[in-house]
Structure formats: C-alpha cells, structure tokens
Amino acid sequence: MQQFELIAPCHFGLESVLKREIYDLGYDTTRVEDGRVFFAGDAESICRANIHLRTPQRILLNVGEFHAETFDELFDETKKIPWEEILPEDAVCNVAKATSVKSKLFSTRDIQSIVKKAVAKRMCEARGLERLPETGDSYPLRIFLYKDQVTVGLDTSGESLHRRGYRLKTGKAPIEETLAAALLLLTPWKPGRFLLDPFCGSGTFVIEAAMMAAEIAPGLNREFVSCDWTHLIPSEVWKDSYDEARELAASAEPEKGLILGSDIDGKILSVAKENAKRAGVGHLVRFEKKPVAKIHRDEEYGFIVTNPPYGERLMHTEDKETDAKEALASVYRDFGAALADMPTWSAYMITSYEQAERMIGKSAQKKRKIYNGMLRTDFYQFPGPKPNKNKRG
Predict the structure, then answer these.
(1) Which pTM value belongs to this model?
(2) Do 131 and 274 have their domain in common?
(3) Same domain, 105 and 135
C-alpha cells in the first residue's frame, strides 16, 4: 500500500498528547512542530486516524513542502507537485484555508488564488485539457506558510474532527471536543475512576470521558470527505476501519455511575443529557443540577476536570443584580471551598481568569499554557494524594 506523510494539526500546547495518541494507535511520528504532528502511514492509516484519534483537528495528507517568498515562486513550486497522480480528472479542488505567519506572502486570499491556479494549470497540461470539469468529489487543500516555508496539505477529514456528531446544541462558549479529550488525556484519570465536572455545561468533558470508558471511537458515527476518494483509499479499507471501531466498542464493558456532571443551569443540563444520549453514553453519565458550592462527594478519591466561567462565558447566578466581576470571583471562591472540602480529590481546570488561584485559595502544582483558538488560557493542575491500592480513585 502506498506510503504517505500525514499531518495532524492540534491546539497549541498539546502536541505531546497527540504524539502519544498517534503512537498508541500504532504509528511512528516523523516530526513535531508548533500545533502540528507529522506521522507516516498508508491509506488504512488515514481511515484509522480519522476514526480513532481524539485530539487532532483534522488529518492532512502532506503533498508538498517548499520555500517561497514571491507569488511567482508559490505558483511555480505548487505547479511542480504531480497533481495528476493525486487528484482524479474531475476533482473539485479548492483551497479551503491558508495561513501565513512571519512570511513575506501574507495575503491569504491571494495565496489561495495562486495555489488554485497552479493546481489547475498542472492538471490541464498533464491531461491535455483546456479547463478542469470539476464535476466530481471534493478535495480541499490547506496551505501553511511559516517563515516563507510552505506546506501543502490535502484535507482528508472535511469537517473538523471536533464535530463528533453528538453535540447539536451547546451552551455559551463550549469547549471543543478535541480540546476536552486532550485535557482529559493530560490528567492521570483513567476509565474506572470517579470523574466530576461541576461546570459541565453541554457536557463535553463528561461525554468525552464516557466515550473513552466505552471505547467509542470519536469518528465512529460520522463520515469524512476522503470516504469518496476510492482511487486513493479503497472502499473496503474504510469498511474494515469502521468495523474495527464497532467491534472495539461492542467488546467494552464500562462501569456505570463513575462519571458525573453538574451545573447550576437546568436548561443546559437538559442539552447535556440529550448530547450524552446521542453519543451513546447516556447510561454512563449522571447529571445533577446544583451550584459548585454543593458538589461535595463522599467517595474518598476522584478527579475534577472542568472548564469554569472566565468572563468570556455567560454567567448564571441566582442574584441577577450581582456585579459580574464579583459574581465571577464568587464562583471561584465557592469552587475553592468545595475543593478544600474534598482534599483527597485531584482537580484540573482550564481558564483564562487571571485571579483563579487567588480566588480558589490554592496554588496549582503545575500550570500549562494552552491556546483555545486565539484565546490564551492556562490548565491548572491540583493533584491530590495517590489512593491506596485497594481503594478506587
């Protein structure tokens, strides 16, 4: 089977998590850059990576890399790529996105136009056509420029991989599924241990955790744009990859009652329950309506992983007249008091709220910088004591 170099973009700061996930899936990484992990694979790898990987934003086929400081160079180097060996004659090939960082070419619209023209020129010359018919399947391209180095990626995913298919409704500023999964994988939590999200919103953290526990592949219930690329990926390879994922989920025996979500907003909890059911894990997650001040658990050990409000999100308070800043501070103080009442639990929290540690009344053992889109956030880690071997935690 033909070998490729594949690119998996991810959130900045979480490359190590994705690298480990790729390795666990059975593939060798070739290099790691900011926000991207490269790995070697074949057609089956494209299918399995799209279906099984929980943390990347998409899977790209690396079709070319070169240096370009002018639009002429961009055109000429793009045209050197053997597009006739990659794309069928009737392909609809559009440059879905271009990004440029610290490069002389910075107009993303012009970059998209030039690359599109170069691909069309090469295809027409190679096949003796005056113009491309563009009546077939979609082949989206993504172009990255960094310090004048160009990477041309063919997007095998289509819709972003965070779109699992279960979250049709959300609350305000929900955390992406891929980011939630990556943050869970950054913690010592494993299926079979207690997990609580006291600001669960539409349920992303607890649903992602339950899917891990049930061994439900994140891409099992969706399709990808490359499912139609039968000249590159035979249909039976996709079928076998989906069958593998179904068999894995069917053989799992997750323990019930260990994953808990709570929130003060009853309406968003209804959405969370619908999302969990749609994800196939409604029986694994318990939801409760309660403020963070009342989240106490009697279990001796467990994990809190959460995405509390931090000014970007709509606050839900019982006193609508409360000043927003004071309300935000109060939420973190209540969270801190709850943590103090559960001293053997470990807590992990992503937020951009700069006063988080002061209001919680506790310093994080570790703090990891994470970019949630363009927003700088920190992932605060408050690990508790390790449980005795004969106790759950």
Answers:
(1) 0.93
(2) no
(3) yes
